[in-house]
């Protein structure tokens, strides 16, 4: 997440939209985590099942196979 929004935009409406979008992305990540630990979802939780992380919005530094792609080639 960008820490200094005043550097890339001085318009309050844009900054507010960015923070609203960021909050929605955090909610999406919480939902992904919740589903990963829901025992009723057998394809997401259980022995030998890796948690779904492909479109989780945030990750640690480095290659993690997580995140939303900036573009997609077809």
Automatic annotation (TrEMBL):
Against SUPFAM superfamilies, the record matches this protein to: Lipoxigenase
- GO terms of molecular function: metal ion binding; oxidoreductase activity, acting on single donors with incorporation of molecular oxygen, incorporation of two atoms of oxygen
Provide one Gene Ontology biological process annotation: lipid oxidation
**Does this UniProt record's set of keywords contain Zinc-finger?**
no
Query: Span of the secretion signal?
Result: none
Pfam annotation, one family: Lipoxygenase
Lipoxygenase domain location, by residue? 1-74
Which Gene3D superfamilies is this protein grouped with?
Lipoxygenase-1, Domain 5
Instruction: List the keywords (alphabetical).
Output: Dioxygenase, Metal-binding, Oxidoreductase
Instruction: Give the source's domain of life in one word.
Output: Eukaryota
Its protein name is Lipoxygenase domain-containing protein
Q: Gene behind this chain?
A: Vigan.02G342300
